[in-house]
């Protein structure tokens, strides 16, 4: 076991052996890890979570996060991984590590999760693009196993049919649970026999999906399937998430029931900021990161805290800048801020004084933050 500070938080790493490695498509592969008996408790996880992998690439230590495709009941850690470029770190992971090799694996983390409700009748809709299918696959396997009354709809976008990752596994699930699971594939760079399935998953496509697929509800003749949707899962790139999350919200799904996971750095807000704030100039900021104290001034409060600290080149932890990943979570020890909508913090955590720097607007002349959570 090893402990490592990463993204402002303490993560515990453990050496795990690769039990299985498989190339899935030309630029994706899977890894499965052996979990020794003494680490079973450490690697318990919830569907939709990820682990951090520490490895050597191009002579340097790298830490990357990868979502699990396995479900908790399977009691194993399986990852789906995309190689974005031949010269990238993940390409080195694919080339240099094989079955029997050890990697340092962080304990499961992440909040792209759902509360299990095995006794309820639920309808859950998911939108995924490319490698974004990985945590959704974990969710769907888990829900099919633990919630006998829940029905699922998956809308899965890829560039072409040959790039569809986990297609065999998904189709097998659909065959086994045809009465509860329906899967629809969309291709953005491959012509389809039915024009409906050509193009990206976005707001326009959602409108068509609601009107042509999620319209008639056999269980309730007076409403549509979309009317019955309880939770929405979205996983992919930032622009896709922004388009679909806002479209789902405008079509009546409460924001608290729209869950998303980002697969790249994204600097824009998912939902538009609808509030206006009084202008405050020359804001004094004190903050602590990894035991070190910093002081600075912000010219005003027109931009969120994280973005302004990054402009000044402070080593503030972040990944998404959109309130999704939680990397910039910190305690507000002094002063006042407005925490905008985010996908990460719970009401309890907010009551404890936690904020996300990337989603916070200063509302006082002085603030004091502490990024050292542990």
What does this protein structure show overall?
The chain is an alpha/beta fold. 18% of the residues lie in helices and 34% in strands. It contains seven helices and 19 strands. The strands form four sheets. Strands 1, 2, 3, 4, 5, 6 and 7 form a seven-stranded antiparallel beta sheet that branches. A hairpin with a 2-residue loop joins strand 2 and strand 3.
User: What's the total number of strands?
Assistant: 19
What general form does the structure show? globular
Structural class: alpha/beta
C-alpha Rg (nearest Å)? 22 Å
How much of the sequence lies in strands comes to 25-35%
In DSSP terms (H or I, runs of 4 or more residues), the helix count works out at 7
Note the run of SSEs as H and E: EEEEEEHEEHEHEHEHEEEHEEHEEE
Low-confidence stretches: 1-7
Helical proportion? 10-25%
Q: Main sheet, how many strands, which sense, barrel?
A: 7 strands, antiparallel
Q: Based on the structure, what is the oligomeric state of the protein chains?
A: single chain
State the gist of this model.
This protein has helices at residues 89-96, 133-146, 167-176, 203-212, 238-250, 305-311, 347-351, and strands at 2-6, 9-25, 28-33, 50-57, 60-67, 77-82, 102-106, 123-129, 151-158, 181-187, 231-236, 258-262, 281-289, 292-300, 329-334, 337-339, 354-356, 360-362, 366-370. By secondary structure, it is an alpha/beta fold. The strands form 4 sheets. Strands 1, 2, 3, 4, 5, 6 and 7 form a 7-stranded antiparallel sheet that branches. It has a 5-stranded parallel sheet with strand order 10-9-8-11-12, with helices on both faces. Strands 14-13-19-15-17 form a 5-stranded mixed sheet.
């Amino acid at each position: 076991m090893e402990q490592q500070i990463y993204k402002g938080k303490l993560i515990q790493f453990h050496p795990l052996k690769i039990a299985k490695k498989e190339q899935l498509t030309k630029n994706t592969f899977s890894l499965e890890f052996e979990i020794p008996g003494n680490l079973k408790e450490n690697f318990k996880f919830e569907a939709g979570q990820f682990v951090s992998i520490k490895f050597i690439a191009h002579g340097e230590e790298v830490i990357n996060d990868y979502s699990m495709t396995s479900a908790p009941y399977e009691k194993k850690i399986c990852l789906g991984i995309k190689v974005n470029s031949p010269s990238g770190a993940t390409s080195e992971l694919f080339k240099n590590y094989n079955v029997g090799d050890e990697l340092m694996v962080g304990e499961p983390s992440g909040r792209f999760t759902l509360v299990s409700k095995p006794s309820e009748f639920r309808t859950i809709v998911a939108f995924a693009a490319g490698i974004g299918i990985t945590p959704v696959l974990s969710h769907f396997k888990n829900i099919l196993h633990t919630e006998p009354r829940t029905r699922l709809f998956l809308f899965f976008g890829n560039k072409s049919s040959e790039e569809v990752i986990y297609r065999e596994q998904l189709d097998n699930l659909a065959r086994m649970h045809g009465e509860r699971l329906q899967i629809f594939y969309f291709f953005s760079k491959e012509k389809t026999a039915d024009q409906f399935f050509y193009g990206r998953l976005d707001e326009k496509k959602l409108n068509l999906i609601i009107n042509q697929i999620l319209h008639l509800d056999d269980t309730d003749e007076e409403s549509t399937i979309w009317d019955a949707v309880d939770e929405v899962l979205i996983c992919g790139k930032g622009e896709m998430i922004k388009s679909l999350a806002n479209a789902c919200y405008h079509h009546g799904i409460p924001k608290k029931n729209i869950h998303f996971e980002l697969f790249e750095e994204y600097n824009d807000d998912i939902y538009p900021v609808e509030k206006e704030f009084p202008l405050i100039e020359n804001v004094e900021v004190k903050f602590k990161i990894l035991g070190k104290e910093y002081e600075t001034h912000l010219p005003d409060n027109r931009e969120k805290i994280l973005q302004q600290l990054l402009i000044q080149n402070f080593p503030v932890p972040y990944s998404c800048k959109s309130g999704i990943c939680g990397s910039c979570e910190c305690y507000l020890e002094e002063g006042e801020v407005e925490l905008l909508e985010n996908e990460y913090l719970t009401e309890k955590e907010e009551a404890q004084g936690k904020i996300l720097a990337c989603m916070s607007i200063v509302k006082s002349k002085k603030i004091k933050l502490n990024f050292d959570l542990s």
